[in-house]
Amino acid sequence: xxxxLISQILTLLSSTHSFKSVSKQLNLSTSTVVRVFDHLAYSxxxxxxxxxxxxxxxxxxxxxxxxxxxxxxxxxxxxxxxxRYKDDLSAYLLKYDTSHTEMVISDMWATYRDLAxxxxxxxxxxxxxxxxxxxxxxxxxxxRKEVQTEFSDYRRxxxxxxxxxxxxxxxxxxxxxxxxxxxxxxxxxxxxxxxALKEEFxxxxxxxxxxxxxxxxxxxITHAENSNLPRFVSVSLTxxxxxxxxxxxxxxxxxxxxxxxxxxxxxxxKRNAYGYRNFNRFRxxxxxxxxxx
Length: 293
Description:
Layout: H1 3-12, H2 19-26, H3 30-37, E1 50-60, E2 63-71, E3 76-81, H4 86-93, E4 103-106, H5 110-119, E5 124-127, H6 129-148, H7 153-161, H8 163-167, H9 175-186, H10 189-205, H11 210-225, H12 230-241, H13 243-248, H14 257-273, H15 279-290
């Protein structure tokens, strides 16, 4: 096999192409393509200053979720781990010097927060904005679904089709959409209260400083606790439990946005290959796509 052919194989595999599609393009057997690819090996030498933990639904190696570690500052994937269990992640981190890491960003999975405290003593722990905003949106959606079960079929379908209007910031809607939302909120006190809490939370997100965010978020938690809406009472407790990491997010520009974008590419890779059974091959394919330059 020539170096040129090997280069072609690896170049095609630096995208979301499956092994089978590459073998068809180059008129090779799938096993030959896999054999060439399996010679690749990726191993990070160190951890970056800004570190992000997340997970995605990989369904590979008998595990539902795989853990992805990224560098959101330089938009690089550091590594893919077979699961998100604390013991396994701890064993992985023990191999590296973590003293120079300045920030650790993650979703609201307690294991990541515990690891940040234990292994990154000099780092600021940050909860990714997308994930705690999503908690409030999900809660509003839960109230909407609960309320619409009391309606007729016609009105229930109308509420379901109009759910995006309820989720969006009211100020960003057109006049016609604002009127439609007002009509929907007029039909239910519960939904009206839930929508008001969602809008107030968007006000929290407009904070320019940590102090302003603290004042607004504390007020929001109090209002949610006293709302008599069980779902918002529950999410207020969640916000209170994660408040330090949430407030820290107002002091940095870094988020898990790059990681979420990477997770979408991984979904495409999985779909094209109809899934992966071999975790190491799956991991290497993801890292190879990220390291194609």
